[in-house]
Amino acid sequence: MANIEHTSGQWDYETKASPTRITGPKGQTVAAVYGGFVGSKEQQANARLIALAPALFEYIEAKANGGDDEARALIAGLEPIE
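-> structure tokens emitted (82 positions)
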């Protein structure tokens, strides 16, 4: 399987400030989401989706390791471009 490098662990998000910050397990900022044209509700929904990225990746990786071709294609799309 691909060797994908990303900030490990559970990610969280803070909705009380703008931009909404997504943080890693050590409190480090891994992303910031701005509302811009989408508004605050969509901004928070986008932050929640990004915060779930490590868990979603683990799920898809397990499916790919189990032989799921669609999951393998998703993982392949995450491989670094050299």
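The chain has a mean pLDDT of 89.
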